[in-house]
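for the recovery benchmark. tokens below, seq after
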């Protein structure tokens, strides 16, 4: 079997495996697990409280990647509520 036939066979197998994951109905619960990355822009100016600068206050935020996931409940076939979970 040459390389082109192997590529076509692999693509057909992948498409067949993905067929069942394309449609959701109302009442379905979807659970996903994966990496969650937080990469904030901490170049902000001095923090404020009610538009009054908090002089001497220093706020810093680090970036991080952790294991996380989400749980979604489908209200309709197109609209769902999702809860993001992270460590």
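predicted aa per position
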């Amino acid at each position: 079997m040459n390389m082109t036939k192997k590529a076509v066979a692999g693509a057909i197998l992948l498409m067949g495996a993905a067929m069942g994951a394309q449609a959701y109905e109302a009442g379905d619960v979807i659970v996903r697990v994966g990496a969650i990355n937080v990469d904030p822009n901490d170049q902000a100016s001095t923090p404020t409280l009610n538009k009054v600068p908090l002089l001497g206050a220093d706020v810093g935020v680090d970036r991080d990647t952790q294991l996380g996931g989400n749980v979604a409940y489908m209200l309709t076939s197109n609209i769902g509520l999702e809860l993001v979970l992270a460590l």
